[in-house]
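Continuing the batch. This is chain 6 of the set; chains 1 through 5 are on the previous pages. Same settings as before, nothing changed between runs. Recording input and output for traceability.
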Amino acid sequence: MKKIIFLVIIGCGAKTIFSQTSLTEQQAIEMALKNHPAMEAASHQIRQQEVLKGAGAPWEHSQLFHNVTADPDLGVFGTTTVGVNQNFPSRKMTRATRDFHASLQSQAEARQGLTRQDIIRQVRDIYHHLSYLDGKSALYNRLDSVYQRVAKSADMRYRAGDVSLAEKLAAQDKAAQIRLDARTVYHEIEFDRIVLGQMLGLGEAVQPVVERLHEGEFSIADTTLLRTSAMAKYSKSLVEVARSEQELTKAKFAPTASAGVYGQYLGNGDLYPGWQLGLNVPIFKKSLKAQSEAAEIGIAAADAELRSTMLVQRNELGHLLHEQEKYLILLDYYANEGKLLASELLRTGELNYTQGELSYADFVQLLEQAAGIELQHLENLLGLNQTVIELEALTGQ
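Output for chain 6:
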């Protein structure tokens, strides 16, 4: 398959870039996934939940206490008690907390999948746009050759007295405009190279190796993957997080144990150690019941959000499939009619003008019609490929 290395025009001169990084689309995708800060952030979020999952339920602060009790025989400071007391989380709370952070870890992984999908889409968009610009540049180079030859022909015919000065100048101006359009395309290529370099985390523009713009393809059979797409996985993870939050709320109803040790110092100098065991039971449950009810509502909301997401994705899929069909019809027209017509308009327009059988105005009209057909073909190819990229991103391919 043919591959093109771009020559970028900067200022008034052309400069071939050999020293910069040369990357294919797949190499650029791999580098972007490795260097993009969004992927780094997603990895840290996954690791964060992994650490919290291993920690289990949080323990309450230890209670250090100092009590003084008056005694009729020993006086106002008759008994002094110093000790420490600790509440222990229930086993149910420990399990619910670990499950909660496990669900958050799954959510972070699903979010990372979304980030990965978006980065891949952005890189592919740039490469396909560069392929489009390469095709556009090739077209302008063809048109430049034609208009330069016609400008020379107009100059010769003016010298021979066959055409007016206005026609000669118009031909020269049109040739200059086409050359300016070609230079504009080169600057667009340079801009895309800079953006690509920034996306890949490099300090310089990238020298992309791109394929010739061709028709992309997406099979309707691939729509079954919609249920396992990155967005669907993320929405499902929200439901699991909501369920884990409900289990955390339920765990608060479970009784917890407490234990403590202390020492009593009597006013007569005697010292006695002691210990205590306790059971903490929620007596006032109104707030806990409200939290439990809210958690139940949260599950229903997350589930409705999942169904909404799937509906939006199905609608988006239908729209993109319609767009793909539209572009395929337009490209089929070009293959069967437009390509031959544009080629013939270019050939006969130049030939008839140089032979004096066609006015300059008619010649320009023919060439602009031919150029319009070719440019529209490139636009349709780019539109089709961008649609395929969106379809593949939507279905998680």
